[in-house]
Design goal:
rod-shaped; 2 strands; alpha+beta; two-stranded antiparallel ribbon; transmembrane helix
Length: about 80
Amino acid sequence: MAEEHTGSKIAPEAQVPRNNHSSAKVSHVGLFLRALVFASSVAAVLVMVTSKQTKLISVPGIPIQISNSAKFNHTPAFV
């Protein structure tokens, strides 16, 4: 038969002292990190949407180079 322990050394949550200052610091850091991630995501989307790449392609046998441009809307995965 198992014996039950009646004298627990773990304090209930109501008796544990809380430090409100550390809780406030953690919430400010969390808010700052969320704002930082949001701002960097917006910047990445703006760079992707407004970017344009142009490459010169040489035609074999003819000394002519043709420019070919790539835009955001040419890639259906990003649209």
